[in-house]
Write the structure tokens for this entry.
Amino acid sequence: MAERATLGDEDGRLTDERRFLLASLDDLEAERAAGDLAEDDYLVLRAGYERRAVDVLAALAADDTEPQGDTGPAEAPGPTSRHRRARRALVVVAVAGAALGAGLVVDGSAGNRLPTQTITGSLPPAIGNELVDAQADLVRGDELQALKLFEEVLAAQPNEPEALAYSGWIVANAGEASKNPTLLARGVASIQDAERADPSYPDPHLLLGLVRLGTGDPAAAITELRSYLALGPPAADAQAARSALAKAEADVASTPASAPAPAHGSGPPTGRP
Amino acid sequence: MNAAVGHSAVLLGLVGALVGIAVLGWGLARGKPGLLRAGQSYPWLVLLAAAAAVGAMEHALVTRDFSLAYVAQNDGLGTPLLFRITGMWSALQGSLLLWTLILAGYLAAVAWHFRRRATDPLVAWATLVGLAVAAFFFGLLLVGAADPFRTVVGAAPTNGPGPNPLLQDNPLVAFHPPMLYLGFVGFTVPFMFAVAALVTGRVGEGWLVETRRWTLFAWGFLTLGLVLGMFWSYEVLGWGGYWSWDPVENAALLPWLTGTAFLHSVMVQERRGMLRVWNLSLVLATFALTIFGTFLTRSGVLVSVHSFSTSSVGPVILAFFGAVLLIGVGLIVWRGEQLRSPGSIDSPLSREGAFLANNLAFGAFAFVILLGTVFPLLFEVLHHATVSVGAPYFDTMTAPLALTLLFLMAVAPALPWRKASASVLLHRLRWPAAAGVAAVVATSASGLHDVTAVAAFGLGAVVAVSALRQLALSFRQRGFRGLVGRVNGGMVVHLGVAIMAVAFAASAAYGQRGQLSLRPGQTARFDGHTITYLGTRTRSYPNRRALEAELRLDGGPVVSPAISVFSFGYEGIGTPAIDSGLTQDVYLTLDSSPVGHGPTVIGVVVQPLIAWLWIGGGVMGLGAALAAFPGRRRRPTAPASAPGGADALPEPALAVTGAD
């Protein structure tokens, strides 16, 4: 049964090929008349189709005369089939090689995914938008959400001064409130990083001044607040800074030179200055 | 009420599809023409059900029925009407509903188109396959997480957050997703017929002829959807670019690449009886990639492979994707012997040789993007670490492939079938080549040293002149009729691609990007433009509050890039202000609002020829429409050129005699 099916398939294939070759010969004439083919090419192609058509017709005739069920001895693979097999192997090797090469390139191109990144491609990070959002959260009193956004900005742009300053301020406030010196020091270091990242940006000086004042170091607060005012801040914020400066100066004046500075001063400021 | 109607409609659609499958299956098994004819009415029932479900959802959105969880999450009292309507495709459940409606529409259109061949087993099998796909999507809509008609637990809220802010910032959301879905879902039709051809054993050229216009429609819609997506990204996202290789973009591009390869290779099979397995594989791959894209964007896998594993939708879509692949490959293997092609390539320097090379390039293009897109997912599964494959990988890998495709687009239309002689080729390519050389010389002389960009300019010019030459010859012989049909429409598409290629190259090579820190009243110069910052103001809209920077550009009218905060949303959305012209776009964004009285940071992107990206996209869409328009009826194997005249080297006139 399987053999019969194979014979049927082979018959069908030969018939299909005969139809194709005869149609190709017709098309060839039309293409020659249309001027698509040069005369030499036409002759070579025509000879090729005719030779193949003769072979196919002969094979079909042989199939008709052969008794069903006897396909004769299997034909040994000739040079054409060996050539075809070699070509197929070459294609497989080439495709596998190209795929492997692409795999190595993609492996070499992949990098750690940052919180703001998608799995592929890259948009310039919308730093501005995130900073606006974070400031809005801060005004609303949602310091945790603001800190998360500032940290996302820092993951994409580690030296962004606004994110450094305000995330440091939130952390320092938390450290002071929880009497956690490690947290406080981490916050202060971040604000100082902001000062170094953009010396012309006034806000870190005000924030650090307020932190110093809150932690009972009015002398350091005075230095920071004066630096802030020297950078020409907006009038409304400058007024708040002058009040803080006056308080710091008063604290310095009222503290005996030998007395140790208290560990914690007045409560930390809440909300954005 | 809306929930009841919606659930009933979805159930009706599922039952209608399943009964239709049973009727057609029984009719095919028993050879009963009556059942096959009856089976063709079920796509209409499915369409009715899908339309009723969509109607219920739109009614719920427009009337703000917050008792539906989907409406409560994607609608709001402040949401304008347009975005309430488009809210249906602003999230997973609604977009699956839109997908189902479009699929049902295609099935009904197929049933109507083939109404006189209802008893043909090829048509019956194709309808059965289509109904099976529809049954899957209706079934998906009943799965917990994808159910659009799920009601809220407890009392219904009185307000909601509205759609994602990015999806209520620009009216383009009304066009981009539906267009994309029309393309995605449209590839179901060639898939249906390919499976039907494999099942019935009619794997010759018949099924290709039946589906080529459907494929063209799907391809045209997908092309327009992609271009609209680029336009939306440019107009809405505020980063000054239009393509960032993000996974959602990649998912949409993949079926376009394999679909484009198929549109070319199908001509080789029609003409030379070759590439049967390849064409079937491309159709199956294109459909499978649309399902893969749905999986990628709707399963939660992009957030993390772990969120995928907790999603009830992801595994179901992935299983369907696997089933499509398994059935497709299984059928091809089963029909292996019958798929052997009688034809072979006589010479690599021929039209079929160029199409074969074009298919290899498209295949490599798709592979590179697929690899880059799934690599981070596989890495996370294997190593429990998150990685990202950046744009440089995609740029580096795809640039040479894109240039190869441009080269083939330039040369292929001049090549005859079977074999090209050097003299014919030289004669036909002399003007396109001259244009290419002129473009390379001009761009190099202008100081451009980027080899890729120079090559893109040169090849773009060759493609454009090559396509225009074919169209001019065709028009000369047949007037406006010479502009329709598959090959002539294809030349118009090539022209659109050339325009886009030049616009891509120009914007990448000559674009300038920078930031200006300005205080009110200050003026800065950037790339030949003066920008004066007048100040900021806050404006309130029904659904958002916007901080707008007022800028005077080149002494002209005031433009206002903004950052908007939507109700219920904490995320600021940038809205750029774009001064667009045929030669150049100036793109302004508010990058950072003033802190206190500090400076405001304004982003500026100046890019040439951006408008030509959209024009090129429109030309491609027009070309697809012209290609789908029936040309002159003739044998698909007619010669590539008109019958020879007095010229020793006749001009090709594809419009007259090419395969439409």
About this structure: Chain A touches chain B through 66 residues (CB under 8 Å). Chain A has a mean pLDDT of 75. The longest strand of chain A covers residues 110-112.
